[in-house]
Design brief:
alpha/beta, 10 helices, 6-stranded parallel β-sheet, 8 strands, 2 domains, two-stranded antiparallel ribbon
Length: 215
């Protein structure tokens, strides 16, 4: 058995909002919809690309049309290389320190697996993650507990030894559903009061704070 830290990706390890906003609005413009503001896109992040595109469209459309728009968004975003994305300051040092302390580290995100793999290769190629899990057909999205428990099992850890770290309400609920320790970071896309309304109780203002909270 061993200690495990599972991280959300967008808003936790990376600031991907500039790329997400750019390619969402490219998609909306292509299909004749009104563009969305930075703040609009920010509040829709966290529940997967399908829900993001649906919420940004903001009107009822058929599943077939949504699939078409989603496919375009995923294609242009994934192929872009995420040039506007940045790793948050202090995050890599945090990850190196946790590995040095014997932690296993994983990513669990609702971002599509192919896009996730590209982002991880581009920005974390020098970090030895033990597992990286994005959304794929047949998988349950957060806040469902299934993939969290699957990571714990595959990495030979336990619920009691696992921390789930994220910036959003989806991450709070995932930790609660899986029965693991939850830490909400405040440098991402949600504020403290909003996260508290979803049951968040432990907060980190910086990656250094996380080192004091993860024992």
């Amino acid at each position: 058995m061993g200690k495990l830290a599972i991280f959300d990706l967008d808003g936790t390890l990376i600031d991907s909002l500039p790329d997400i906003e750019y390619y969402v609005n490219q998609t909306l413009e292509k299909f004749g919809y009104k563009k969305r503001s930075y703040s609009d896109v920010r509040k829709f992040i966290g529940n997967g690309a399908r829900n993001l595109v649906k919420d940004c469209i903001g009107e009822e459309i058929s599943s077939e049309l949504l699939d078409e728009r989603l496919a375009y968004y995923n294609r242009v975003y994934t192929s872009s290389g995420s040039p506007r994305t940045k790793v948050y300051d202090g995050v890599k040092e945090l990850l190196y320190t946790l590995k040095g302390k014997g932690f296993k580290i994983a990513v669990l995100t609702n971002k599509p697996q192919e896009t996730t793999d590209n982002v991880m290769q581009n920005y974390f190629g020098d970090v030895e993650f033990d597992m990286v899990v994005g959304y794929a057909e047949g998988r349950k999205r957060k806040p469902d507990k299934t993939e969290t428990l699957n990571i714990i099992s595959k990495l030979n850890s336990t619920i009691e030894e696992t921390y789930f770290i994220g910036d959003g309400e989806t991450d709070c609920l995932t930790a609660k559903n899986a029965g693991v320790k939850s830490i909400s970071v405040l440098w991402g896309y949600r504020d403290k009061e909003f996260l508290q309304s979803f049951g968040a109780k432990v907060f980190a203002c910086s990656p250094n704070d996380l080192l004091d909270l993860i024992k």
